[in-house]
Structure formats: C-alpha cells, structure tokens
C-alpha cells in the first residue's frame, strides 16, 4: 500500500484527476491524505467533493478554511457568499445535504504513529504539543458534528482574537482560537502570538514575525507535520514540516508526496484550468 499526501485542491478537479493518474492511485490498494481546502476559488469544487467522498476510507481529509466557509454558507443563514467564491454548484446540487454531512464529519487533525506523520491544514500554535493539539481538534470536531452547536460556531467563528493560547479560554473564544490555528495560521510573534494578517512569503514578512514552525521552543517540534494552506511558502520540507500547498488554484501546480517510503519526493501536475481566481488565500 502506498500513502500519498496531496496539497490544497481548491476545486481544481482536472489537475486532481491527472495527479491521481500520475500516481497510479488505486483506492483498493492505496491511501490519500488531503490537507484540506478541497473547495473554492477553482472551477470544479462539486466534482472534487464527489470524487473524494466516493473514495471512502481510501481518502483521509482534514478541513481547511475554505471547507469551513462552505459549511458556514450551508448551515448559517446569515453568512454571505463572497464575490470570488465558486461554491454555488455545491449549494444547489441535488446531493448537497449528503455532501455537507460528509464534510462536517471530516477531521481537523490526523495522526498516524506508524508512519510518523501528523496532518493539519494550516499549523499549530507553539504552546501545543501533539496531545494538546489532538484534544483541541476533538473539541472542534464534536462541535461541527452537533447540529445546534455548529450553527452557533459559525455565528462566532470569524475574527483574529484571542491571539494567544491559554487553557483557560472558554466558549466561542476558545473555539475561534482553535479554528484559527488549524485553518488560518502562517505567522507568529516570537512570544507565540498568532498573526493572521500577513499572508506572503517569509522573506517579505515584518521583522517581528516568523513562520509558526520557527518559533523558539515550539512544543510540537518533535512531531512531523504535513500541512497546506500557505501557497506563498510553496513546497517546504524542513523544520519538521512538510508543506505542500503549491498554488494550483493560483495558476501554479498541484503537489503530491509519498509518505510511506524514504525521504519524500514531490510529484507535481501543473495548473491547466482556465478562469481561476487570483488571490492569496
């Protein structure tokens, strides 16, 4: 059995299919890890959701910020659709409810002790070790799977505060912080505060900011992390992090790496879709 991790697909179903062909992927034999952001900005989000759902247990997917935005649109009557969203085909599909139910039951974190990898969409704050991250992921997953609680989550999910972890956080502030770490994190300050504003390349970051994985004393530094979300970072295999969002939806390429062999070697399929959005998230 081969285990492959694939970067942010974001509705680029044509490239996704080409990459699976390149991998000679078989759902009866192999396994896919998908780092989240299956949907949005690309042209075929509905097709991507249907394709991944049809793979059953052969596909393991964590949720990204665009996936949560889709859930908010579907479940929160006051959540506005954005001008660059390409989610209407899902919201109008005859199997919409089935797809939304399936998406709500995906994970925020996946850990495989045998492979030695942990997958999240964006990152982990420096105060979390693996056990804390798993517990926080479980809190958010339980909320998403509860009809009443998930609607309340989406009503209070958006915002950049609080910006530093404390186990004393409670209620919506606690869930907002957890959500921001798993789905939006790129940079932190040296003292471990999240900065969710700057989204560019590391070399262009303000001097007081550093990548989340470079904060001194990061408690998850002994955990090998697979993630996406940060197309401006691109492919990055260092610092205990394998980052594989290589910006297909922005006209670049879609990335896969095999996790069950020796040192991972990336496999790329270039963007071939027309009419993609332009942006940074």
Largest sheet descriptor:
5 strands, mixed
Rg (C-alpha, Å): 17 Å
Count the beta strands: 13
Question: What would the CATH topology be?
Answer: Purple Acid Phosphatase, chain A, domain 2
Could you state the order of secondary-structure elements as H and E? EHEHEHHHEEHHHEEEEEEEE
| Residues in β-strands, percent | 15-25%
Mean pLDDT: 95
Number of helices: 8
Q: Strands across the major sheet, in which order?
A: 3-2-1-12-13
Query: Strand pairing plus helix content: what structural class?
Result: alpha/beta
Helix content: 25-40%
Q: In the CATH hierarchy, what is the superfamily?
A: Metallo-dependent phosphatases
Domain unit count: 1
Instruction: Please mark out the parts with pLDDT under 50 across 5 or more consecutive residues, or reply none.
Output: none
Shape: globular
Fill in the keyword field for this structure.
281 residues, alpha/beta, Purple Acid Phosphatase, chain A, domain 2, 5-stranded mixed beta sheet, 8 helices, 16% strand
SSE order and pairing:
Elements: E1 3-6, H1 13-23, E2 31-34, H2 45-54, E3 59-61, H3 65-75, H4 88-91, H5 96-104, E4 110-112, E5 117-119, H6 130-144, H7 147-156, H8 171-184, E6 187-189, E7 194-195, E8 209-211, E9 225-227, E10 236-238, E11 241-243, E12 253-258, E13 267-270
Parallel strand pairs: 1-2, 2-3, 5-9, 9-11
Antiparallel strand pairs: 1-12, 4-5, 6-7, 6-8, 10-11, 12-13
Describe this structure in words.
With 281 residues, the chain is an alpha/beta fold. It has a single domain, classed as Metallo-dependent phosphatases (Purple Acid Phosphatase, chain A, domain 2), CATH 3.60.21. It is built from eight helices and 13 strands. The chain has helices at residues 13-23, 45-54, 65-75, 88-91, 96-104, 130-144, 147-156, 171-184; strands at 3-6, 31-34, 59-61, 110-112, 117-119, 187-189, 194-195, 209-211, 225-227, 236-238, 241-243, 253-258, 267-270. The strands form three sheets. A five-stranded mixed β-sheet has the order 3-2-1-12-13, covered by helices on one side. The longest helix is centred in the middle third of the chain and has 15 residues, at 130-144.
